[in-house]
Amino acid sequence: MKYFKLFILVLFCSFVLVPEANAQVKIKDIVDIEGVRGNDLVGYGLVIGLDGSGDSIRQSPYTEEALSNLLERLGVNIQGSDFRPNNVAAVLVTASLPAFARKGSRIDVNISSIGDAKNLSGGTLVMTPLNAADGNVYAVAQGSVLISGFKAEGDAASITEGVPTSGTIPNGARVEQEIKFDFNAMRSVRLALRSPDFTTALRIENIINQESGVHIAEMLDAGTVELNLASGSKSTAHQLAAIENYQLNPAQKARVVIDQRSGTIVLGTNVKISSVAIAKGNLSIKIAEAPIAVQPNPFAPGQSIILPRTSVEVNDGKPGNITLIESNITLPDLVAGLNALGVSPREMIDILKTMKTAGALHAELVLQ
């Protein structure tokens, strides 16, 4: 068994500001407009045409009831008949109604089985109304279900790839009712930052006021910039169309993200460390048991016993490498310094954790 020992020495030093990377992005890529959002829709429907992989009526009686109601609305009376189909599955249909969606436009829908159906492959969703939280119908879904998984089975074995009991219908729903929203009537609009940051919010305020020539933007907090568009000669939509394309350099936090399960490490460009000396050594301990059986002489009184024999071998291995990493280095220097130790990604995770504990890593450490 091997144990890796890390020794970190933190040396005090002064900081040097390093210029940020010149990565300009558009405002619309880092903010959301308050009030402009989608609405979730949900509906209960039936998928028909399955190859014997639908719900069993005994286990899912609601499927039979829904199918009976559907056929009765179509003028088919099945009351009193022995109706036990196995090619129908009850499903929940979900979708998101985008902002400014108009009548006749189409949206994607997701299909998920709620019964004991085995597979939805090859099925067709029957016309299903989709309701919003207010109970009103805003779209109607129908079409062939596409799934990304499959299931194959025999008498003694089976294999399942993906999830064959859920799928999608691209452009499977048609919008039947619009959500009333007069966007141009809004003369005060708030921009909500997806990653709140005071520096980024201030830069958004400055670039908008600079490009527009008037003071219309004001930072309220780290996540909100308010726009006063009442003084503009153009409509709110026209003004926002110009504002969302202004470009700026968003501020980035110094952050190290570690996925411990896969051994993945992502380091931001602003990560800095103080001067540290890192040593990595190996220690191996080998324990072997070789018991000896001892028996009494023939015809002599006594009994057989087991004498333990244990050998312990300790090996410190070769002397560990010691690497000195200078102060206030950036991402390329940090990676080069750690690679000089010849460490694996998982060993590097332990080094970064210990550096953070020692106070040498000046960045937010995010463990997943």
**Physical arrangement of strands within the biggest beta sheet:** 4-5-6-11-8-7
Q: Unreliable segments (pLDDT under 50, ≥5 consecutive)?
A: 1-21
Q: Let me know the number of strands.
A: 25
- Tell me the Rg in angstroms: 33 Å
Main sheet overview: 6 strands, antiparallel, barrel
Compute the separation of the termini in Å: 26 Å
Secondary-structure class = alpha+beta
Strand content: 35-45%
Query: Could you give the order of the helices and strands?
Result: EEEEHEEEEEEEEHEEHEEEEEEEEEHHEE
Question: Which descriptor suits the 3D outline?
Answer: flat
Number of helices: 5
Mean pLDDT: 78
Count structural domains.
3
Helix content bin: 10-25%
Write structural notes for this entry.
The chain is an alpha+beta fold and 368 residues long. The protein has three domains: 2-19 and 255-367, no CATH class; 39-175, no CATH class; 182-248. Helix content is 16%, strand content 39%. The strands form eight sheets. It has a six-stranded antiparallel beta barrel with strand order 4-5-6-11-8-7. Strands 1, 19, 22 and 23 form a four-stranded antiparallel sheet that branches. A four-stranded antiparallel sheet has the order 3-12-14-13, with helices on one face. β7 and β8 form a beta hairpin. Mean pLDDT is 78; it is low at 1-21.
